[in-house]
Specification:
The protein is an alpha+beta fold. The protein has one domain. It is built from 4 helices and 15 strands. Strands 1, 2, 3, 4, 5, 6, 7, 8, 9, 10, 11, 14 and 15 form a 13-stranded mixed sheet that branches. A two-stranded antiparallel ribbon has the order 12-13.
Length: 254
């Protein structure tokens, strides 16, 4: 019989996203294992009325090497670009870059305005403010994350039903916590704390992306579905090693 095992190692679950991020920054510990693992926070995904889509990752600990930040952008035609601050083969493009453009950028800046608002900037190209909030649904998901033992976040048998439960709770479209990336690796996501993106806006390359609104059709990268309502998370992710057929993306250095 499997034991209860340790809880996920993000420290004590805290009440605001800013406090949660500060807790991880002090001690950004990885989950146990021999696969490729990351610990961090970010915007799981935010859709905009004009058909644009943004996501953000700040991975504070990585079994692949140094920490990094990334921005994911989908334009209204469906073309994805991942911007990363480190070697693409040690960050998000390692898993998703076969179906996206990739740009390595000098920096992505994150500034907390208060406990519930954060600005994300990428040089002169991107200015993005997110206003966050807690709802009964996000509190329920965070409570579930608090009591779920570490082994369960590495179990397909647990993650499948948990993803289905998140669909009902969050009403953000389809959610899968495990599956295959476009590059062929298996992924398992552990969003240990969750908040709703309740407001804000973004400008990319001098264009206003519009109001927050669902896409006409939910988008995905491999088995990873992007939420139809903005979600912010703190948690962990793990991936299997690359498969031999994975295509190394062409990288634009900025």
């Amino acid at each position: 019989m499997r034991g209860r095992g340790p809880r996920p190692t993000l420290g004590v679950m805290t009440s605001t996203p800013r406090k949660a991020v500060s807790t991880i920054e002090v001690n950004p510990r990885l989950a146990r294992g021999s696969d490729e693992r990351f610990t961090g926070y970010g915007a799981m995904g935010v859709p905009f009325s004009g058909g644009h889509y943004l996501a953000f990752r700040d991975m504070l600990a990585s079994s692949m090497g140094k920490s990094y930040r990334s921005i994911w952008h989908r334009d209204p035609t469906g073309r994805w670009t991942i911007f990363t601050t480190t070697d693409p083969d040690a960050s998000c493009p390692r898993y998703f870059g076969s179906v996206t453009a990739v740009e390595q950028v000098p920096a992505i800046e994150v500034t907390w305005i208060d406990d519930w608002a954060v600005d994300v900037r990428m040089g002169a190209r991107l200015s993005w403010r997110l206003r966050l909030g807690a709802t009964p649904a996000t509190r329920a998901m965070t409570s579930m994350g608090r009591v779920t033992p570490q082994w369960a976040w590495n179990s397909d048998a647990v993650l499948g039903p948990m993803g289905s439960m998140a669909v009902g709770f969050l009403r953000s479209g389809r959610i899968r916590l495990h599956g295959r990336t476009p590059n062929g690796q298996g992924f398992k996501a552990a969003p240990l704390q969750v908040w709703r993106v309740v407001g804000g806006g973004a400008e990319l390359d001098d264009a206003d992306l519009g109001a927050l609104a669902p896409l006409r059709e939910q988008t995905r990268l491999g088995d990873f579905w992007l939420p139809q309502r903005g979600l912010f998370f703190a948690g962990q992710a793990r991936f299997t090693a690359p498969v031999p057929t994975s295509r190394t993306p062409a990288v634009k250095h900025v």
